[in-house]
Write a structure and sequence with these properties.
The complex is a heterodimer. By secondary structure, chain A is of the alpha/beta class. Chain A has a single domain (7-225, 266-292), classed as TIM Barrel. Chain A is 40% helix and 15% strand. Chain A has eleven helices and eight strands. The two termini of chain A are 27 Å apart. By secondary structure, chain B is of the alpha/beta class. Chain B folds into two domains: 2-118, Rossmann fold, CATH 3.40.50; 133-200, no CATH class. Chain B is built from seven helices and seven strands. Chain B has helices at residues 9-15, 30-33, 39-55, 73-76, 95-104, 148-151, 177-187, and strands spanning 2-6, 21-27, 61-67, 88-91, 109-112, 114-124, 127-132. Classes of the chains: A alpha/beta, B alpha/beta. The interface between A and B is medium-sized, with 36 and 32 residues.
């Protein structure tokens, strides 16, 4: 068995403030763009998430995308949702992903298919995200498949991540749910994009009261917004995302809205760094991956190790 | 109850194409309660069928009967006396009733007039909503009497996903089932129960293994 070699885990365990980012796989069969993004971003981000058919739109698979990131010299974090695979397929893909050299896994429920380009699809949700986390942990630590059967050799030893959304409801339960994910085995957490900083700080207060930052590594999610139009769209149409009116107004009044979006993002990162219990940031520059270096540099996080 | 709703008229007409005499069979069970397949609806269905076919220049003769329940052979046997000269049966029952007719009358065509929707409850007159996923292994005892299997769009067992906002599911216009569960468990002082990690469900009790069966030896009748 090869030793577990998650660079992300080493960095987080060493107590460094970590940057992760996100690469959206394409709606085609080419890995070239992913490899190029990985090569471009590896100096700026410790690891890169590969989304798993995000918003239920068919894209190149997250596992394959992870291999393309490795080819570009980057460290992949494979996202795995429960929407499209039952427990047999999930475990099979975990074995396959590990065999391909992928070491970091982010477990999610998955966006409902009603939002994607195949709304007539049948969803699976055989396991939910918390049950998936536990399954991955049991495969690693107890060397058993979900059914209890022993994995005789070469068990996958993933570094396990999960997501938290402090902006969804019911608000107080969000901290309970985070705790459940930690109990199930989540070693790092990436949050939904933060725009409402006050609510996020309240969430972190509650999380600290329950001692959660000592039991996991929390990476705060940020997103540079390209325009007021995009901000308005998210405010109106994306459930579980809170975009305050002040952010929209600030973008509207800006001469260069994209530049202002980057500026806001940088300010947020600088502020998030001061919040106790935050171990890093996760930059979600959806379809704008090339902006990540400017954000990381602007936030004073360079040079990275 | 089983809630059903009428199929599009064109589909019903196509399923009875070329037939000269049709037996329209209502059901006095669930579909009568949800105003989709009872005696009144069977009557309307039969007269509409006659009128439409007359307009098309292909008149059809209809007979009507409404059984106490179409899911019970005891009542379905009553159809025997009505079948003389009948080319086909139009059943206004749920999918169960249609199949019981097919099983008992192997030599006659039967078509459904309804789409069987779900096991649900009346919200108000004229409005019904699904309440049970018929999963075969009830979890209501763990979730305060609110079913996440069928009322959560993702059938989650460990709390609301990140798309729950203001009590609403991200799949509009549904209420978030887990928000309802959270509020109810809170009122009942049982929020701690929701901190436990719920195990994966045993779906072998669900629909995955072909038709499920319940047999009660204690209530069987000796022949």
């Amino acid at each position: 068995m090869t030793e577990p070699s998650s660079k992300l885990q080493s960095l987080l365990d060493s107590g460094q403030f970590v940057v992760t980012c996100e690469i959206g796989p394409p709606k085609n069969a080419s890995g070239t763009g992913i490899t190029q993004h990985a090569a471009q971003l590896k100096a700026y981000a410790a690891a890169m998430n590969l989304t798993d058919n995000q918003t239920a739109i068919v894209r190149l698979s997250s596992i394959a995308a992870g291999v393309h990131v490795l080819a570009g010299g980057g460290e992949p974090i494979i996202q795995m949702t429960c929407r499209d695979r039952n427990r047999i397929a999930l475990q099979s893909d975990l074995l396959g992903a590990y065999s391909l050299g992928l070491r970091n896994l982010l477990c999610l429920s998955g966006d409902h298919q009603a939002f994607g380009n195949h709304p007539a699809a049948k969803n699976v949700f055989d396991l939910d995200s918390i049950q998936l986390i536990k399954t991955v942990k049991d495969m690693r630590d107890s060397k058993v498949f979900h059914c209890g059967e022993k994995i005789k050799q070469d068990e996958p030893q993933f570094y396990i991540g999960a997501v938290a959304n402090p902006f969804a409801d019911p608000f107080e339960y969000r901290v309970h749910r985070l705790e459940k994910k930690i109990r199930a085995g989540a070693q790092f957490i990436q949050t939904q994009c933060i725009f409402d900083m006050q609510r996020f700080e309240t969430f972190m207060d509650l999380a600290r009261k329950r001692g959660l930052p000592e039991r996991t590594h929390i990476l705060a999610g940020v997103m540079p917004i390209k325009s007021a139009k995009v901000a308005k769209y998210m405010q109106k149409n994306v459930s579980g995302m809170l975009v305050p009116q002040a952010v929209i107004e600030r973008l509207e009044q800006a001469e260069d809205q994209a530049q202002e979006g980057v500026k806001i993002c940088i300010e947020q990162i600088r502020h998030l760094k001061t919040i106790p219990g935050i171990h890093g940031v996760h930059i979600m520059a959806v379809a704008w991956e090339e902006i990540v270096p400017s954000i990381v540099t602007g936030a004073g996080l360079m040079p990275r190790l | 109850m089983i809630v059903a709703a009428a199929k599009p008229w064109e589909e019903i007409m196509a399923s009875l194409h070329g037939m000269h005499k049709v037996l329209v069979v209502g059901c006095g069970g669930c579909v009568a309660v949800c105003l989709a397949g009872g005696e009144k609806e069977a009557g309307i269905m039969a007269s509409t069928l006659r009128m439409q076919r007359k307009l098309q220049g292909e008149p059809v003769e209809t007979e009507e009967i409404t059984l106490t329940r179409q899911c019970d052979p005891e009542y379905v046997r009553e159809l025997g006396k009505k079948l003389e000269g009948v080319d086909g049966i139009l059943s206004l029952a749920c999918g169960v009733g249609v199949q019981v007719i097919a099983e008992h009358y192997p030599n006659i065509w039967v078509a459904p007039a309804l789409n069987t929707k779900f096991a649900g409850a009346t919200l108000e007159h004229g409005s019904w909503e699904e309440r049970c996923g018929l999963c075969g292994d009830c979890v209501l005892g763990q979730t305060g009497g609110i079913c996440p299997i069928i009322r959560c769009a993702k059938s989650l067992l460990n709390g609301p996903c990140g798309g729950s906002q203001d009590g609403k599911c991200e799949v509009k216009p549904n209420e978030c089932a887990w928000n309802l569960i959270y509020e109810r468990m809170g009122r009942l002082g049982r929020l701690n129960q929701l901190l436990e990690v719920a195990e994966a469900k045993d779906w072998s009790q669900g629909r995955d293994g072909g038709p499920r069966r319940v047999v009660r030896e204690d209530v069987k009748l000796d022949d």
